[in-house]
């Protein structure tokens, strides 16, 4: 039976684009918000992981709004404000890099998703957030991650792209569809529709933007694998796009593998995650929560907290101080989505290009406006398998995926998607009065015609041409980007502004620690009880 979904969904997409671009509120379509979180390991000049503490000149990793750490003390996270145009977002990201380089001496930011040369797993420094109860909780959570997954995997880095549509867009669609849902529920439902479409088609992003086809042999710590030998120190897959997003990188553990998030309804999603953060898991129970009187994980459940769930995309809502993410979603609905599968682009100093961001905006708009079928377990599994296949062999000639249970050539499906994305790009450009989105889509279409243009292919070709190992390639790119930022220091006013922000964040942390009330044991007990008592979704 032929698959008629593409034409049917394109009709819905074109209708909604028309509704949003033909009225007096058409500017709302370009008035959403874009934020970027970029992770980067600090490394020494020779590519080894920096073992130095988070630089004090960057402020407090606990309280600074823009500069923090992720898993390791060496894994910096740069967080931009949310802006209406990704060009402004990327300017903020560039500025953050320039300030960081003023504070890290001879160290370099590793501008690759797969890490450089790491010490032994148990020597990788876990991020330290001080002596306040919340700071200690963040540390214990990371100790738990180390016990569950190992520290090495936590050193993989990426780009998170936060995307929202202006609420006027949802109001217009709500009226057009004569929906009986209230505004909050309608908006949440449409964001979940975006997520379902994303889950089915985000393999396309891996093909177009995946940039981690190789890794250092030592990263695997002797684990079994199916990689091939590139050189004495480097393993790779000839057609891989993103080993970071494959089973070798963000692999789901046995505990997480059984966790299927329900993206059909918000109550279903909340229920699945709430169960995971409250359901004990035997292997973690065997570890326990304390060793020799020291906390080693927050709890023994499938997930210690909801953010432990490794997902390529998350529904999000800005939280109030002390509020859990699931509580915020339950109380006020979905506000934006966080796209988490983008590799760091080793050819871009900031790790992501404006062109990539423009393409993401057009692609995510299609995901948001297209019809979106439910994602029951078989479809969920099919989407995961397609995604995994493209991470490991996306550039393989003639590669086939599976759509609705039927084989389909990846390139045929990709060209269907690009045709839809063209419509979204044209709509955005008609409002902006330029062709920036259309050109971004054209650049990606060229990669479909010629796989050698993809970042993953370019990485391997440069390594071959220059006879570089993965570490040599990564260090050369990172050093070049370091020089780019160091050659453009911030002016005095910007430096003073960032210095003041860092100083203020340190004072905030000190105040938290000074005014702390209650023991850490009591704090953890209250934290866990809050989680368990608030969820009966």
UniProtKB/TrEMBL annotation:
InterPro entries: Gln_synth/guanido_kin_cat_dom, Glu_cys_ligase, Glut_cys_ligase. Its EC number is 6.3.2.2. Residues 18-390 form the Glutamate--cysteine ligase domain. GO terms for biological process: glutathione biosynthetic process. Pathway: Sulfur metabolism; glutathione biosynthesis; glutathione from L-cysteine and L-glutamate: step 1/2. GO terms for molecular function: ATP binding; glutamate-cysteine ligase activity; metal ion binding. It catalyses: L-cysteine + L-glutamate + ATP = gamma-L-glutamyl-L-cysteine + ADP + phosphate + H(+). It comes from the Bacteria. Keywords: ATP-binding, Glutathione biosynthesis, Ligase, Nucleotide-binding. The keyword Transmembrane does not apply. HAMAP family: Glu_cys_ligase. Belongs to the glutamate--cysteine ligase type 1 family. Type 1 subfamily. PANTHER family: GLUTAMATE--CYSTEINE LIGASE. This is Glutamate--cysteine ligase. It comes from Paraburkholderia largidicola. The lineage of its organism: Bacteria, Pseudomonadati, Pseudomonadota, Betaproteobacteria, Burkholderiales.
